[in-house]
Design goal:
It contains 13 helices and 10 strands. The chain is α+β, with helices and mostly antiparallel strands and about 325 residues long. The strands form 4 sheets. Strands 1-2-7-4 form a 4-stranded antiparallel sheet, with helices on both faces.
Length: about 325
């Protein structure tokens, strides 16, 4: 037992130095980290400073102040902690952001014309991305510790971490007018994961917002959930209404929901940057046959009834 503790201490001790014990080998480690991440199935990687998202606090507080988070009370739980990685973990010195492409091999909005079929958001058609990505992040984090020491924490969309602002700061893309990530290489189809580390790693430059005057995502929303560019009212969002909202679907949104029973991809699919994207290559994220275009018993029933039926099948 004592030997095990000593081994762990050695593992966490900093070995992030050159042969002369003085010059950091940060650049070399960064390249090898990127190669290992690619081997594990990640498509994008960037590194940022924990303090790089100071402006996110203002946006989050404005979002909460008008009640746009609806019933997602966990968003309002200690917003200061959510908006500052240093509050989450005071020892963090670098944030490694990773993206995994889950681009669909078809047009996810085509099924909306088939009213007797259930439309399920692309992200939910495959295996649970939380489990998949967290496992890969842990593998990469173990590699990093073995190579350079330090301590790490990994996060995948389940803790008080603002992944999208951090990913933007790390250069993976930018937050589009639909508030989601947009990548020049992968469009709007990236799952995000984060590794917090005590190592001081070289930073990547944030990417310039390239939305320009485009309004495709805003105009595509069937329930007009966007208050303004870059501002979402979740209470009107179909993804929120079919996943987070616990009560009946408000009458004003039922017709617009159509056959969407779990999530909505309209604003993501409308993004012109998707023309540069390509299909996701991770087999576990591919659509499972049993979740593809299931038949709705009564297409005229409310979305809540459709969800209840789907859960029984």
């Amino acid at each position: 037992m004592a030997g095990g503790r000593a081994g762990l201490a050695d593992l966490c001790g900093s070995r992030f130095l050159s042969a002369d014990g003085a010059t950091p080998l940060a650049a070399d480690l960064r390249e090898r980290l990127a190669r290992d991440a690619q081997t594990l199935g990640f498509d994008a990687i960037g590194i940022t400073d924990p303090a790089a998202i100071d402006g996110a606090r203002v946006n989050l507080e404005a979002f909460l102040q008008v009640g746009a988070h609806g019933e997602m009370e966990w968003l309002a739980d200690n917003p200061g902690r959510r908006a500052d990685p240093k509050v989450m973990w005071q020892d963090v010195r670098s944030v490694i952001m990773l993206g995994m492409n889950y681009g669909p091999d078809d047009d996810p909005t085509a099924i909306l014309a088939e009213r007797s079929r259930a439309a399920i958001s692309v992200y939910a058609r495959g295996d649970d991305y939380h489990d998949l990505i967290k496992k890969r992040l842990k593998q990469l984090a173990r590699w990093l510790i073995a190579e350079a020491g330090g301590e790490v924490k990994v996060f995948v969309d389940t803790a008080a971490v603002m992944e999208k602002p951090l990913a933007s700061a790390a250069g993976l893309g930018w937050q589009g007018k639909h508030t989601n990530m947009v990548s020049r290489e992968f469009g709007s189809w990236l799952f995000l994961g984060a590794i917090f580390t005590t190592l001081d790693l070289p930073r990547d430059e944030p990417m310039e917002d390239r939305c320009g005057s485009c309004r495709s995502c805003l105009d595509s929303c069937p329930t007009s959930a966007f208050i303004a560019p870059y501002r979402l009212d979740a209470r009107r969002c179909i993804s929120y209404l079919t996943i987070e909202h616990k009560g009946p679907i408000p009458h004003e949104f039922r017709k617009a929901m159509g056959n969407r029973i779990y999530g909505c991809d309209d604003c993501l699919a409308a993004c012109p940057w998707n023309k540069f994207a390509h299909d996701g290559h991770e087999a576990k994220l591919a659509a499972r046959t049993r979740l593809f275009a299931r038949c709705l018993r009564n297409p005229r029933s409310s979305a809540s009834a459709a969800i209840a039926f789907y859960a029984m099948c």
